[in-house]
Amino acid sequence: MRPTFRLVAAIAATLLLAGGMTGCSALGKESGSSSGRSSSSGDGSDVSLGQAGFDNAAKPVVAGTFDSPMAEGAKVDIAIMGLRVRGELATLTVQLTPRFPGVAPDRINAYRLNGEHGLGTSLIDPVNLKRYVVVKDSGGKELETDDIFVKMTNNQATPFYYTFAAPPENVKSVDLQIGSWPTFRSIPVER
């Protein structure tokens, strides 16, 4: 009985090797492309394929200047750079610019700009009546820029990134709540 098992294993190994040499894979897909990638439609619908890149918004979708409780006369510029969906996730890009008259405090961060409260950034879906909070990784850490440990400089924009579950296809825009500042309305969902 032992020789039969060895014979079957040898035949299986030979068939797998022959299949690999002809460009076939065990999953029935072609694997003969020299780059190791299949072609994609280019519309971003196949997230496992495509060119590496980054979100690069040159100008904000909307921006506003608000009071900050951090110091007398302090303001913060908030620029919403975009909300881009890729697969099942959506990435929000925001720029915060602290504005202090005179000499700025030594330590500026988003937490202090918001009156020593976390920003609690969330998306509000007016179509499906849902609130989206920042997703967490497998270690339980929220996928967002840290609002305490990221140091900010007076009069200089600092980028902040937040990752959410993507709203459904029928949602074309969402409202956005950041910190204690007014809600930003109708932020377009880019797909």
Mean pLDDT reading: 83
Task: State the low-pLDDT regions, or none.
Answer: 15-44
Largest sheet: 8 strands, mixed
- Topology as H/E string? HEEEHEEEEE
Say how many strands there are.
8
Helix run count: 2
Report the structural category: alpha+beta
Question: Helicity range of the residues?
Answer: 10-25%
From the spread of the alpha carbons, the general shape counts as globular
- End-to-end separation: 59 Å
What is Rg?
25 Å
DSSP strand (E) fraction? 25-35%
Structure summarized in a few sentences:
The chain is built from 2 helices and 8 strands; from the N terminus they run αβββαβββββ. The protein is of the alpha+beta class. It is globular and about 50 Å long.
Protein topology:
Layout: H1 2-21, E1 62-67, E2 75-86, E3 89-99, H2 110-113, E4 122-125, E5 130-133, E6 158-165, E7 173-177, E8 184-190
Parallel strand pairs: 2-8
Antiparallel strand pairs: 1-2, 2-3, 3-6, 4-5, 4-7, 7-8
